[in-house]
Amino acid sequence: MRLSLLLSLFLAVPAFAQLKWDTMEQSLKSKPGDREVVATYRFTNTGTTPITIDNVHTSCGCTTAALTKNEYAPGESGQIVARMDIGSRTGHQEKSILVTTKQNPKTPTILRLIADIPEPLVMKPTFVMWGVGESPKPKTIYIKVTDGFPIKLLKVDSDNPDIKVDVSEVHPGVELEVHVTPKDTSRPEMATLLIRTDYPSDNPQTYYAYAKVK
Amino acid sequence: MTAFRQAGLILLVAVGLAGVTAAVHPKRPPFLAPPRDPNEVTLAQTKPWAGNILWVDARSESEFTTEHIPDAVCLNFENWNDQFPKFLDRYNPSQRVVVYCSATSCQLSREIAAKLKGSGVDEAYFLEGGWEAWKQQNHP
For residue A30, is pLDDT > 60? Predict the structure, then answer.
């Protein structure tokens, strides 16, 4: 009687125990020059029957998740490799990977990819604004290369001659103050400020800041 | 006495199993909920800001084109350099900016709001429940 009661309690362990993951969350920090963040999630079929992974879906178009095959025998291990394209992403990023099995289609396993992507340049702010009729006093954008990035700031241009920039170097090539001044504020104006760099050497990148009278 | 011992044993086993389930079950309830992000707002919190909100849709351009909150602007990491100037065309520093994405699987609204704050938009928030919450309340 006692034994059967205990057995029934143990048999009540739910079926989700079949796929066992080494880790369901990965926190990674990208390095300067990285173009993607790659996370690997290993798993083992700890059940007594084969399991089929039906679908692997990511929460962001920027992330892909690859599986080498779909069916895993009892005791067999496999892995999902998730790749997040960095693009213009910076800072704290969290993406989800939903894994659905044929045996348990309504409760997908949610894997999490947490990435910390340092910004190559710190720009504060990335835009300055004046109201129409406001005094056309200069406003300043502070630009600094983040430690560890081999970037040299070459020059800053305005694409609108009616909004001028005056650059003062705090530390040449790595830290600047850009003083932005509109000629007048009697009408709406817009300028894109082009911050030219030498990095990466094969395709030097230009960063953007904005000035607007509105 | 035997009945008490049996009951105690059953309780012990049940608590043990419950503990294991609470530790490893993928859908375990959040007993220790993480602290709420101060930049997260509910739809109810945005009500007093009516008329002074710039909604930012952080979903893909195709989802935005299909449907979005009226007067929202589309802004996401894929097209940041093209879309940010359009955001500035609409932005007024006296406005509050509320970012939303699809709530089911998305962290983008939090990330875009953080990037906007870093860019100089002081009053940037993200919507709890995202697009689905707005849609349910406005077009159930």
Answer: yes
SS3 content of chain B, % helix, strand, coil (to 5): 50, 15, 35
What pLDDT, in 10s, does the model give residues A36-77? 999 999 999 999 999 999 999 888 878 899 998 999 999 999
Tell me, yes or no, if A160 comes closer than 8 A to chain B by beta carbon: no
User: What is the SS3 assignment for B28-83?
Assistant: CCCCCCCCCCCCEECHHHHHHHCCCEEEEECCCHHHHHHCCCCCCEECCHHHHHHH
Rg (CA), chain B: 22
Q: What is the pLDDT of residues A68-123, one digit of tens each?
A: 899 999 999 999 999 999 887 888 888 889 999 998 888 899 999 999 999 889 99
User: CB B111 to CB A93 under 8 A?
Assistant: yes
Q: What is the DSSP letter of A146?
A: P
**Touching check for A185 and chain B: CB below 8 Å?**
no
Which residues make Cβ contacts (< 8 Å) with residue A122, sequence separation at least 6? A142, A143, A144, A146
Q: Which positions in chain A touch B92 (Cβ < 8 Å)?
A: 214
Of B53, B54, B57, residue with least CA distance to B66: B57
CB contact under 8 A, A127 and B77: no
Do B77 and A94 count as a contact with CB atoms less than 8 A apart? no
Of B10, B78, B84, the CB nearest to A5: B10
> pLDDT tier at B56 (50, 70, 90 boundaries)?
very high
Rounded Cα–Cα distance for residues A53 and A99 (Å): 7
Q: What pLDDT, on a 0 to 100 scale, did the predictor assign at position A49?
A: 92
- Across A68-204, where does the E strand assignment appear? 71-72, 77-85, 91-101, 109-117, 121-124, 127-130, 139-145, 153-158, 163-171, 175-182, 189-197
Give the model's pLDDT for residue A78: 96
Closest CA to A6 of B80, B12, B76: B12
Rounded mean pLDDT, A137-157: 95
Report yes or no: A90 at the B interface, CB cutoff 8 Å. yes
